[in-house]
Design goal:
The protein is mainly β and 1022 residues long. The strands form 13 sheets. It has a 22-stranded antiparallel β-barrel. A 5-stranded mixed sheet has the order 3-6-7-4-5. Strand 38 and strand 39 (766-783) form a beta hairpin.
């Protein structure tokens, strides 16, 4: 079972994990000094003054899921932002497990291994893939809520997740586990071997662990009943036909839950268009059948007469899910080494090393096109003129198809060059997939020791490297690297040559200058019609290579002043040190992708400047009182860190102050306040700029300068002449860049935590903690558009020394200098969250040797708001209660150990969450409209003031919330003898699947996609 905090040094009589000789097996049951996560000062007992949840590795691995990250995401304090199910929603992230503590974002959760940083999984961002953490060498995971930048540096805004590995492991452990869902899919396998040995009379230890884990991919087509890959999606669909547009508040639900939903305007074989007006309740479409003929598709219901929906129920439109995944396929190979040798108490070298290789398989949607091919694929006017349309003389048209087109007036009486357009979801081209190979190397080496009797030091070097290779499959080739038509844009324009053969038009005449002998014409008329040769010509497998390196050098000293003096509560403890860190990153696609020649956008190489930081830190603990009436313990502590970055962030301070008060041994109160930082990453600062053009309305132009009360003064301060007319911007588009913003500053986090720990002496083995947390993130980096940034610059009430003006460029005459602005992240947004954590544990050993344990963890979310309105920074956007952020979440587990057999039951609870935004069907806090009138007759208010507003659309959905859910797991362990242990288990016993059309693949979607899952395994120990 997990260990809750605080964990005290226990006597043998109280030890609930005593072995057959009555000796406590766990290191944490000895009196040695232990460093608590969240502090560098050793203590004789684990008494944390900050909220700390410590989870034993067994609680995380006693399931059928071999993904450590998914198991952690099931904890109430962590949001499922990057699970195996939803990691496929971005290019290049398939298979990653990245942690999001408190829902404040993955970039605000610092992940450590043994208190030290770990190499990133995404170059340019400092995010750890939990798949690279060793499982069978892991002892526990500590989760600390609240700012910890003073202890660990940047990114610890929401808190820290610290993976603690075993020390002094001796013996040999082998483990094998396999599992499969009740539907016979999503099979997984885990095999590991761990060997360790103490030597030199216990002064040295070496441990090596090797692991292999495999999880089969789960495709949409494997679960049609859930995904509707063939039969049509189940989803909320607009059905209110009372008005042309959705009418809020008429009591009729705008959307109801339906199944069999397909896209009306596009199909897998090609759709020509509708033959009925939008008012038709069963709007019919002309579509290509698999044999290439055209048929009239009549759905069961059509929603074309309702707003702008493009769906139908039934019929032959595309489900949009013939490709895609519920979960990525993953293979993981890991080797880890831990070693140390105590030459003396003052000189103890140690090393940690690892190599992890992860292979991930992802499949997404295929390529597609809609309507005019030139309009869909052209990036420039020259390309628009060069791209041909489909023509009525295309020889792949069947006789029936041509006659149908003629009958509808699309083509003439005989085949000719008349153009026509179709919309096609190219499932027969293959889903655009990804094959990933990620290799992670990490080595930490150093020396630690004790001197001056009770002072400790540590000097370490930490190096990590990430190398990745991604093959992007079935990427549609459109242009060559020079921008000339190629691949697909040549292949579909087919004609017959003089010999009657169907060829690409580019090869049809006798002129050989522009011939493409390798061009293979492709048949787009009907699903499954393209030949293998044609697909080989139009599809290309693109390649991306990435690299990241991290180097950290650190040194620290800790101890106490007992040799000089002591306070009434004991000696003053201290720790101080310094750290130097470097981060480098690189990412580049092949030349074709970089030039914009494929279905992907043009993605230039990312090769940012090295980021480096020099830091110094200190910590002090003052034990004021101890062992006194009504003051069993009273202590305060504090920490500070100063960091100097080689970026615009410059020098920044972080600090914390903590207090612990125990009036009696059974009850402890704790409090902490911290200021933390998140420094802009290389991606934030230097992500590759792409050039864009837009018609930018200059707010300093004489025609607009009076449209805001601050514009005259701000434009003058920027050097814009009085009466300025921006003739250039008024008459043509202006160039700007979208990408990183090198002027970004640090995000600032402020956190307050208050808690109580109860360990009643009259009930040994029981403890209960309640912790309140409140976190605010200021100057949060959020992206804005070019026009919005320029307007905000000159509308600011604080002058032009604001983050919006930092990237606006003008010349001395006042005209924009291209790029006029960098459209990207700006330090203007904010986040606020608060909640209460509950942690209860009870463990008991009975006289007959049987053992009972209970653990329950719960989180009650009080608030989670985002402030992303630049013109009204006080207006909250509520995130709490929306998908991924329920107000209540909890885990509980019970174990009864009979000796040779132990049985476990665990349950996970997820509270209800809103369908759509919270504001749609609930009253909410928002800004008063400019009219001063609260909607739906709610009275008047001051424009811009934060007031209670009525729901924006109280009848948006027939349901208001996704229901709450309980997931139950059972497990049985049988000890065959002292060396072998066999176990079996069932996860999600009652086969709960995602509700109301969810798949478990959306950002934050916490629901299980796999259903009932069976697994079995065996452990052997010597």
């Amino acid at each position: 079972m997990s260990v809750s905090q605080p964990v005290l040094a226990q006597s043998t009589a109280d030890c609930v994990d005593a072995n057959e000789n009555g000796v406590c097996d766990s290191d944490e049951n000895t009196d040695r000094a232990i460093v608590v996560t969240g502090s560098r000062i050793s203590r004789p007992t684990l008494e944390s003054s900050v909220p700390l949840t410590s989870v034993d590795v067994g609680e995380l691995t006693d399931t059928g899921d071999v993904s450590l990250g998914d198991a952690l995401n099931d904890l109430p304090s962590l949001r499922s932002t990057f699970s195996q199910g939803n990691s496929t929603r971005f290019i290049g992230t398939a298979g990653l497990n990245i942690l999001d503590l408190r829902g404040l974002g993955i970039s605000r959760t610092l992940v450590l291994v043994n208190g030290k940083r770990h190499i990133t999984a995404l170059p340019g961002d400092y995010l750890v893939d939990v798949n690279t953490i060793p499982v069978d060498l892991l002892e526990r995971v500590d989760i600390v809520t609240g700012g910890n930048s003073a202890i660990y540096g940047s990114d610890a805004v929401a808190g820290v997740v610290n993976f603690i590995t075993k020390r002094n492991f001796e013996g040999m452990n082998l483990r094998a586990q396999g599992g499969v869902s009740s539907r016979g899919d999503r099979g997984n396998l885990f095999v590991s071997g761990t060997w360790g040995k103490n030597f030199a009379d216990g002064r040295g230890n070496i441990a090596v662990s090797a692991e292999y884990a495999e999880s089969n991919p789960l495709y949409f087509t494997d679960r049609d009943s859930l995904t509707g890959a063939y039969s049509g999606r189940c989803q909320f669909q607009q059905t209110d036909r009372t008005t042309d547009e959705t009418q809020a508040g008429d009591g009729i639900p705008d959307s109801t839950f339906l199944c069999g939903i397909k896209n009306a305007s596009i199909s897998d074989g090609g759709t020509l268009g509708a033959i009925d007006g939008t008012a038709a309740a069963r709007r019919r479409y002309l579509r290509f059948a698999s044999n290439g003929d055209i048929f009239i598709d009549t759905p069961d219901d059509s929603f074309s007469d309702i707003g702008s929906t493009g769906n139908q129920q039934g019929g032959a439109g595309s489900t949009l899910r013939n490709t895609g995944q519920l979960a990525a396929g993953l293979k993981r190979y890991a080797i880890n080494l831990l070693a140390h040798y105590d030459v003396s108490d003052a000189f103890r070298p140690f090393v940690e090393a690892k190599y992890v290789r992860v292979n991930a398989v992802q499949e997404g949607q295929p390529s597609f096109f809609q309507g005019s091919l030139a309009g869909f694929f052209a990036n420039t006017d020259e390309q628009f003129d060069a791209i041909p349309e489909l023509r009525c003389d295309n020889p792949f048209l069947t006789t029936q198809a041509f006659q149908t087109l003629s009958g509808f007036g699309v083509c003439g009486a005989t085949p000719d060059g008349t153009p026509f357009a179709i919309s096609r979801f190219n499932t027969d081209f293959g889903g655009r997939g990804e094959y990933h190979t990620r290799e992670t190397y990490r080595i930490v080496g150093g020396v630690e020791g004790t001197f001056n009797d009770d002072w400790n030091y540590e000097v370490s070097l930490n190096y990590g490297r990430l190398d990745t290779r991604m093959k992007s499959l079935n990427n549609l080739k459109l242009y060559d690297t020079a921008g000339n038509l190629d691949g697909f844009l040549l292949a579909y324009d087919a004609v017959r040559n003089n010999a009657g053969q169907i060829v690409c038009r580019v090869n049809a005449d006798a002129i050989t200058t522009n011939d493409r002998p390798d061009c293979v014409p492709i048949n787009l008329f009907g699903q499954g019609k393209p030949s293998a040769e044609a697909l080989a010509f139009v599809n290309v497998n693109s390649l991306r290579k990435e690299r990241a390196e991290e180097f950290v050098a650190s040194a620290s000293i800790s101890g106490d002043l007992s040799q000089l003096f002591e306070l009434p509560g004991g000696p003053i403890g201290f720790a101080f040190g310094a750290e130097y860190r470097e981060e480098t990153a690189y990412s580049a696609y092949d030349d074709l992708v970089a030039s914009g020649g494929t279905f992907l956008n043009a993605i230039p190489p990312f090769d940012p400047a090295k980021l480096s930081v020099k830091e110094a830190f200190g910590e002090i603990s003052l034990p004021l009182l101890a062992n006194m009436p009504f003051a069993e313990e009273l202590s305060i502590s504090g920490a500070a860190r100063v960091s100097d970055y080689n970026s615009a962030a410059g020098t920044v301070w972080a600090y914390n102050v903590q207090g612990l008060y125990a009036p009696i041994p059974d009850v402890r109160f704790r409090a902490a306040y911290a200021k933390s930082v998140r420094t802009p990453t290389q991606s934030d600062l230097f992500s590759t700029n792409s050039e864009n053009f837009a018609q930018i309305a200059d707010p300093c132009d004489i025609s607009r300068i009076n449209n805001g009360p601050n514009r005259v003064a701000n434009c003058a301060a920027a050097g814009v002449p009085v009466g300025f007319i921006n003739t250039i911007a008024n008459s043509q588009t202006t160039g700007y860049l979208s990408g990183g913003n090198p002027t970004l500053q640090n995000e600032i986090g402020k956190s307050l935590t208050l808690g109580v720990v109860v360990e009643p002496s009259f009930l040994p083995g029981f403890n209960f903690t309640v912790d309140y947390y409140k976190i605010k993130v200021e100057r949060l980096i959020s992206a804005l558009g070019a026009q919005q940034i320029i307007d905000l610059c000159y509308d600011s009430s604080t002058g032009i020394n604001n983050p919006f003006c930092a990237t606006v460029q003008r010349n001395a005459a006042g005209f924009f200098i291209e790029p006029a602005v960098i459209s990207g992240g700006v330090n203007f947004a904010a986040q606020k969250t608060e909640g209460v954590d509950f942690d209860i544990q009870y463990r008991r050993t009975f006289d007959n040797g049987h053992r009972f344990s209970l653990r329950a963890i719960a989180t009650h979310l009080i608030r989670l708001d985002n402030y992303t309105q630049p013109l009204n920074p006080l207006e909250p956007n509520r995130q709490m209660s929306e998908l991924g952020d329920p107000r209540w979440a909890a885990n509980a587990s019970v174990n009864y150990d009979f000796g040779e057999l132990d049985l476990s039951w665990s349950v996970r609870y997820i509270g209800k969450q809103t369908i759509g935004t919270y504001e749609a069907q609930h009253s909410y806090q928002g800004a008063c409209p400019a009219s001063g009138n609260i909607p739906l007759g709610g009275g008047t208010c001051t424009p811009g003031a934060i007031v209670t507003l009525p729901p924006t659309n109280p009848d948006a959905f027939a349901e208001v919330n996704y229901p709450d859910v309980f997931y139950h797991n059972f497990r049985a362990n049988m000890e065959i003898d002292k060396k072998f242990n066999f176990y079996i288990g069932v996860d999600n016993v009652f086969d709960k699947l995602p509700p109301l059309g969810l798949l478990g693949t959306a950002a934050g979607d916490p629901f299980d996609s796999f259903g009932r899952y069976f697994y079995a395994g065996i452990k052997a120990s010597w």
